[in-house]
Specification:
Blueprint: H1 11-66, H2 72-86, E1 95-100, E2 106-109, E3 127-133, E4 136-146, E5 155-163, H3 165-212, H4 232-283, H5 288-319, E6 328-331, H6 332-349, E7 353-357, E8 366-369, H7 371-388, E9 394-401, E10 407-414, H8 445-455, E11 459-464, E12 476-483, E13 494-496
Parallel strand pairs: 7-9, 11-13
Antiparallel strand pairs: 1-2, 1-5, 3-4, 4-5, 6-8, 9-10, 10-12, 11-12
Helix pairs in contact: 1-2, 1-3, 4-5, 5-8, 6-7, 7-8
Amino acid sequence: MPAAHREQRSLFGEILDWMLAPLLLLWPMSLGLTWLVAQAIASRPYDRELADLARALARTAAVQATAANPSAAEVRLALERAAQTLKRTDDDDRTYYQILGRRGELLAGEAGLAVPGQEPASEAGVRFRDDMIGDEPVRVAYVWLVGTGASAGTEALVQVAETLGKRSQLATEIIKGVILPQFVILPLAVVLVWFALARGIRPLAELQQRIRARESTDLSAIAEGDVPDEVVPLVRAINDLLQRLDRTIATQRHFLADAAHQLKTPLAGLRMQAEIAAREIDSGRGDTASIKHSLRQIALSTQRAAHMVNQLLAMARAEDTDQASRHQPVDLTAVTRAVVRDFVPRAIERRIDLGYEGPDANESTRLIGEPVLLSEMVRNLVDNALQYTPKGGTVTARVVPDPFGQVVVLQVEDTGPGIAASEREAVFRPFYRGLDTQVDGSGLGLAIVLEVAQRHGAEVTVVDARPRSATATPGALFTVRFPLTAPKPQAAATTAA
């Protein structure tokens, strides 16, 4: 099943989402924190006033407690009068008070106020708590009065409670003053982020326009000075791709020019021989021998052109990157033996001893590759050796397995003139021909060998088959080392030992 097409995403939209999503998430948290802070700020001044009222009532209660033989009615009356004097009167909140004696009796005030747990005397002072009177929430300030003399160890309680109207109103005003501007600031921040992102991404749009405005033949490097630092690696990668593409196109153009030049020679010969034969027939002076000679030359030129076309097709197959997907187990021994058998008639015609050395088909010579390309590579190596080996010479194709099972080696050795050390890299270039050779050929055979080796992750080397001397030709020994693991196409190393 083909993989599902991944939805195309907008870089601008993704950055905007990552910037605005945290902002929209933090905004409700900010509102909650603002509410809590506003409540604390609004309570602080009213708590101070409530504490002052509680202290004043406590002082009054303490004075009454130290009076000489006061009656309960007198104490209650005095405390109520003091409480009425100290209580604040307003339309928003109600104030309640409660004064309990040392035995817990109600001396004055509201009986509905709950009695808090008694703190130790060392912690005496005004304290605060939130409570309820009926169904109404209140803020309570209370203080414990520690007894002295005969009543030491006992404590009276003074409590003052106030409803929360003014506090809530003040907290609401604070929240409004803080939050309302945010309703203006937040959309403004979104708009500013939008414009900032649009301004920041503008160089990408300009780079896109510059690339689109280029001619299809313009493969020059893109200037890096006009792009942001974050985009420079991308521009460098594109420049590297353009450089490689330029080299590839130049190589293909050169290859096509060489191929056209190489094909022009046999086609020109073919045309010339056909014209000669036609003139001789038209003049009536041509004999059978001359016409046969022209026909043989025509056949030879046709054979050369066909050979050139076949090698060009083989080169194209070798350069096809899709060949890697068609790799399969191939026995190099079987391929080599089959190629040698095909060339035996030609070797006999040229009186060359052509042979094969190596094991029979087995697992040690089996590799992962493309059978057609491997056969084409062996054919070109053997064909090249037969072309350059003189009559009476020897050509040997051998397969050498590795006892450690890491590689399998193909060698083709001849007794020809060999290859000079200065030319051992050049001979693998397409259409290259040695300067001192008189052998007819296209110059594509070894280029195909190198390309096939690259597609199979193999290494190609060429050395002299034997030490050079004045009496014997050095010959050439071509060696191809194939890894027995799954091939990874790479640039094969063409070296001269």
